[in-house]
Amino acid sequence: MIAGLYIHGQSALHRAAAGAKILAMVALGTGVFLIPDWPVVAFVLATVLLLYPVSGFGPRIMWAQIKPILWLLVIFFAVQLWLNDWQAGLLVITRIAAIVMFASLVTLTTKTSDLLASLERAMQPLRPIGVNPEKVSLAISMVLRFIPVISTVASEIRDAQRARGLDRSIIAMVVPLIIRTLKMADDVADAIDARSFD
Amino acid sequence: MIRIENVSVQFEQRRALSDIDLTLGEKRIGIVGANGSGKSTFVRLLNGLQTATSGRVLVDDFDAAKDGRKLRRHVGFVFQNPDNQIVFPVVEEDIAFGLKPLKLSKEEVNRRIDDVLARYDLQDFKTHPSHLLSGGQKQLLAISGVLVMEPRYIVLDEPTTLLDLRNRNRVQRAIAELDQTVITVSHDLDLIADYDRVLAFEDGRVVLDGTPADVLPKYREMMA
């Protein structure tokens, strides 16, 4: 399941303009890579974490955002420890954690439609070179929408193959998943056409 | 009024529909037939998802071959699996999606979303992730996403096939309350038992056409 989807609320961050939040995300993402000291980046991370309760989110939601990348943080820390020292390790993982936690906070407090509307506006200058902002934003929204659907399909296939004793076969998992996903893509394309989106 | 004039649809190796000639003016029309009989191809003609190889499809003033985009707003389409129809991750966003080409004001979009959600008692789910709805709620959301475009006709392609009995009954009540002309493809014969007209398809042709009282017993016999 996708962790960081919009959760309705009335906080200042919920009310802030989507464009401003995207700009803040870009600024934070760039800023933490310009800062060479881990304690300063750790302070930025702590500030980001503080924004969670301020926006009405408890520890459970915070944990759900960081949990999927924990293993990655451990690996990065270990590599830096091996190549450099523990300070370098802390610098790398606090940077990544700050970016991920802030990006999650933006998606938790911003409706997908508002995010996409901002992206569409930002992409308007690209229209003369053949970029269709509406189609790009539709594609992004569909990625968000279909991650949980494909995850459910994968779980159904895993159960079906397990029942046949094929739980160790990658082919038995991947082939039906690809076939069902392609069929689903056809059906979704029809549904989009049917709703008059060109 | 829908007019199907000598329509045939040919896929590469297979003739899906042969010389269909019909006028449909009833408020509730049911379509039955075995898998592969041509019934889904037939209803896909009605909002331009499928083009006829020969013949003409006219829905009110729209010619399906020429007015595809306008026709799709005039004829809403609800698919069997709502998971393939819901394209946005949040309920209100998905309903708003169909309104995008209409360039309505934000207030009008919100009004239509609130109205349609209230109609199906889904107002508490307005900001809810769409993938967390139950099967019945998803199908009602799919219907809402079509209704909000205020079409004149609604085509439902096996809308209750994937639902449990309670949700099936809920969707049946929702269909019964629609003001629009409804064309329903279904294997669930009880769903269309009180319709005005039923067409039965076999091998790409209409083999039975009449009231449910006339058609359904013969169709049951045909499928025995």
UniProtKB/TrEMBL annotation, chain A:
Keywords: Membrane, Transmembrane, Transmembrane helix. It is found in: Membrane. InterPro entries: ABC/ECF_trnsptr_transmembrane. It is a multi-pass membrane protein. One of its GO terms (cellular component) is plasma membrane. The chain crosses the membrane at residues 66-83, 89-108. The keyword Ubl conjugation does not apply. Belongs to the CbiQ family. This is Cobalt ABC transporter permease. It comes from Thalassospira tepidiphila MCCC 1A03514.
From TrEMBL, chain B:
It is an enzyme of class 3 (hydrolase). SMART domains: AAA. Coiled coil: none annotated. Its EC number is 3.6.3.-. One of its GO terms (molecular function) is hydrolase activity. SUPFAM superfamilies: P-loop containing nucleoside triphosphate hydrolases. Keywords: ATP-binding, Hydrolase, Nucleotide-binding, Transport. InterPro entries: AAA+_ATPase, ABC_transporter-like_ATP-bd, ABC_transporter-like_CS, ABC_transpr_CbiO/EcfA_su, ECF_ABC_transporter_ATP-bd, P-loop_NTPase. Residues 2-224 form the ABC transporter domain. PROSITE patterns: ABC_TRANSPORTER_1, ABC_TRANSPORTER_2. It comes from the Bacteria. Belongs to the ABC transporter superfamily. This is Biotin transport system ATP-binding protein.
